[in-house]
Amino acid sequence: MTYLVGIADPIHASGVAWLEEQGARVVQGEEAIGPRLAELDALIVRSRTKVTREVLERAVRLKVVGRAGVGVDNIDLEAARARGVMVVNAPQATTEAVAEHTIALLFAVARSIPQADASMKQGKWEKKRFVGVELAGRTLGLIGIGRIGAAVARRARGLGMQVVAYDPYLNPEAIRERGAEPVASLEDLYARADVVSVHVPLTEETRGLVGRDAFARMKEGVILLCTARGGVVDEEALLEALESGKVYGAGLDVFAQEPPGATPLVTHPRVVATPHIAAQTREAQARVALDIAQEVWAALTGGELRWRVV
Ligand code: MLT
């Protein structure tokens, strides 16, 4: 049997080649896929393509949706479940890349690296303007300590930071094993953290989780990082907290609406913004493409699934 696999968003060539070696026919790009939706056995997406109920209804043969990455908030999981369509993802491949980017944003904010670079490029030498803050001895508070949170914790400890974490899905021992001191509540985390970093998916439970009330409880001069999902941080509340000086600076890779455009948050002088690139390393993208190709193939051929979401 030949399977038709649609790849809606570009993935690394290694994954496409692997599927073709197995004998799959591959159709790439939203435009090419659109008219052939009803023929697809599998659909692979990244975060750009929204797999809505309507898409799933039109894809009458579809057996599996593969998400080349971690977050599945762009897939209607309820509709997939109702139609008996499996959803799989590739949650391991991008862990180190996202953790590295989180730390990169932390340094960028703490030492105003992008602003200093922009100033140099204008021929200036503003030594007095760029006085940063040190990280050693400071406390990092992780909201969520899954794979990525744990990888960030490892790096932060290497920088001499103390790490605390709140994760209602893990018991205190598991949080300790992941390299952080567990705290009992988000309130405790906000009271202790000099840097708050978000590592939870976007769900109904986490939407707007870091909002006005959260900022009110945080320390003066806190740094906020989010490389997880737009929508978890309430962007209006963050802007207010930046303007009041409560938040020293923010490093953001994800936004409630992507692309966000030149919003007051993105253009704020103490925000370092990147266009959802935390997972965009050559190594991670090659791994993620191969992982999702193999997982989707396993779903089509009755193989063992490592990362089934639905
Ligand atoms: C992910 O969920 O894997 C990352 O945010 C990367 C992406 O969506 O491209």
Distance between the termini: 24 Å
- Biggest sheet layout: 7 strands, parallel
Structural class: alpha/beta
In helices, the fraction of residues equals 25-40%
Topology:
Blueprint: E1 4-7, H1 13-21, E2 25-28, H2 30-33, E3 42-45, H3 53-58, E4 64-67, H4 77-83, E5 86-89, H5 95-110, H6 113-121, E6 139-143, H7 147-158, E7 162-166, H8 172-177, E8 181-182, H9 186-192, E9 195-198, H10 212-217, E10 222-226, H11 235-244, E11 247-252, E12 271-273, H12 282-301
This protein binds D-malate.
Key attributes of the depicted protein:
single chain; about 300 residues; alpha/beta; Rossmann fold; 2 domains; seven-stranded parallel beta sheet; five-stranded parallel beta sheet; about 15% strand; binds D-malate
Provide structural commentary.
By secondary structure, this protein is an alpha/beta fold. The chain has 2 domains: 4-93 and 282-301, Rossmann fold, CATH 3.40.50; 95-273, NAD(P)-binding Rossmann-like Domain (Rossmann fold, 3-Layer(aba) Sandwich). Helices cover 36% and strands 16% of the residues. It has 12 helices and 12 strands. The protein has helices at 13-21, 30-33, 53-58, 77-83, 95-110, 113-121, 147-158, 172-177, 186-192, 212-217, 235-244, 282-301, and strands spanning 4-7, 25-28, 42-45, 64-67, 86-89, 139-143, 162-166, 181-182, 195-198, 222-226, 247-252, 271-273. Helix 8 (172-177) links the parallel strand 7 and strand 8 (181-182). It is globular. The model has no long low-confidence stretch (mean pLDDT 98). D-malate binds next to loops.
